[in-house]
Records
---
Amino acid sequence: MMNKRQLLSVISLAGLAMLSQGKALAQADYPNKPIKLIVAFPPGGTSDVMGRLMSEELTKVLKQPVVVENIGGAGGIVGTDRAVKMPADGYTIIQTGVGQNAVAHGLDPNIKYNSVTDFIHLTQVHSGPNVLLVHPSLPFKTVKELVDHAKKNPGKLDYGYTHAASGHMAMELFKQTAGIFLTGIPYRGGGPMLNDLLAGTVPMVFLNQDVALPHVKAGKLRALAVTSKERNALYPDVPTVAESGYKGFEALSWSGLSVAKGTPQPIVDKLEAAMAQAMQSANFKQRLTSTGFVIPSQGSKPYTEFVKSELDQWTRVIKTAGIKPQ
């Protein structure tokens, strides 16, 4: 006969086996309830549009509702921090991006999450260049003309920016790469900055290509260069900054999807496969390419490497420029 200690040991082992079987069954049955996709910005912007597009396509693939929840604040830090602390069970997907997962670390090395170690990055969803725009009243037709003028007149050429946005980072990298001194005019939002650019109050900005396009087509703004390594399909006659004399220059707006570290591998694999399938849909491809965005290399490995490289680049740029968090 078993003694009391042996009996408790058998019961404990049986309980662990049942728990293990339960976890395996839950993973095999995943997903069996709605999934949240946390977008760390308010509704209406590019991040929200990308999150909702992916939620729409993933709902079709996973056969469960994928529901966007917007948690804005502190340039994406508030929502990202909250999301990465939710249970790592695959029922919370986190939209990651250049602001909250690269620029944020350069601005504040003490933020509460680590974008390299606290996440499992599943796939990059989109990337798009910024466009160097000038008001048509300015004489510059090329990047070289602008840089030559800035070097002869240091500090006398203004530009607009919103703090720590991708356009701000593109401008800081451009200034450092070209070796020019420009005077920055800060704006609290992209809308007021664009209005002042259209009015000629501020002469120059870097702006996301989708926002800039209608104004460039209408002749209200002049595009001098795009910040991607290759020309953008919607700006075929606009050279890259790299083509304009600054080899290797690249500054992108991007987002992807991730989950918290600790998410079971079978669920990670299922989500990665589902995202690859979602991004192959005709609807997804049409909606991205029609606004000048590029569908990047898919999968966990390239996205993980990309996040690390972006974090390193923008940390260097921010440190050199001496930019502080607001």
---
Amino acid sequence: MTFAYLLFFDNPPGADLTVDAGQKAAIREIVAATPGLTSGLIYTPETAEDLFNHDGTSPPFGLQLHFSDLPALEAAVSRIGHLQALAEPGLLSSLDGAKATQQAMYVRHFPVDDVVIKTPAGALPCSYVVHYPGPAEDLNLWLTHYIAGHPPIMRRFPGIRSIEILSRVDWCGALPFERVDHIQRNRILFDSAQALEAALQSPVRHEMRADFHTFPPFEGGNKHFPMATDTVLPVL
């Protein structure tokens, strides 16, 4: 099983913030030293054109930190947990004014035909991160329908390397960021932003759109963001 702690920073109105490289490196060190961490993802903005969705600039920064169980995650974000370091004043001063939101979720992994990432040296692979704030009219029906129908279509995207569907859980934590309760998030991974864009311009994207119109009723819309993805492994 995999649980994820997610922390996203959104641009304030009219701004397009960029995280300082030194501050990003400091966050990377904090993440790598987290007790119980199995892997971490550090997100920064990328650009890829979608046939249907045009949700604006991607968030300037985000984290998706994986743990094998919920107690390990909750320990890391507790009042005395290691990840309290993320809230240190000035740590992310380059993102002052950004709105930070957090959530813990269960991560469902789905098969793809080729998991080998072929990103050129010195570059980063690219995730397409999707947020569904909700609510759904019937959450059980929503999840059941989505999980059964959408990932098999995603699998047909050319060059796809990973598929994750994240669903909400109840969780305890003490980090001082706004908590949100999205009904679902997705992440699909490609070798590069160019590979992601090729998939989003492929015939499979039309299949995805057609399936979207079969979803059970829900509110809140959705947001789609291409994000450069830096994988962090724990320091042993």
---
Amino acid sequence: MDPFALKTLNAERRSRRAAILVTDMGDGRDRVVKEGDLVAGDLGQAIAKAFRTGLSGSVEAEGRQFFLNVHLPQPRLVVIGAVHISQALAPMARIAGFPIEIIDPRTAFASAERFLEGSLNAEWPEDVLTRRPLDRYAALAAVTHDPKIDDYALKAALDAECFYVGALGSRKTHAKRVERLLAMGATPQQIERINAPIGLDIGAASPAEIAVAVLAQVISAFRSRGLAGKAKGEAA
């Protein structure tokens, strides 16, 4: 591998940014393509698909054979609220390959006895997210119904351009939330990215069913990154 390409690739990986090492199988030359870089033609389409799927492999484009070695950051699922939905969501997220972090300053809820999986933080979101900031490869689900806990995390997720942002609550609840987020400096375009009510519209009723709907929406958002015009799933 070209030393400059290796240095570039390692820098992207350290910064939790996606990159693909593109190797021309004909002459052995390689280059690093960062997520968001413009690559024209069939090769560009193959690269865009590889960024979404995370799958490495060979492709043919412009009459040449290329190997795409894909490096995606491990996605994070950050849940604000140690509630019943979170209890059901934690094992599901692990199985689906999304390490989960649960944040809730209410120690009666955020107890090790209630959560056997995932990282549990009985602290305010402001403290946890300052130590471990959100980024474009994080998903955030706010499920406490408490503005004092949810709102800061939602604003932080919007500012970090998380690939998924969801919030529990009715449309009436969300309308009040929008007013508060606007007062905090969020833009209408940012707020439009919030999935509220949260989760795909599968008619979910129980906490476990809502957890399924949320995880499905997170997966859909992750795998459709970069696809313009994809409709947001509606909620449970």
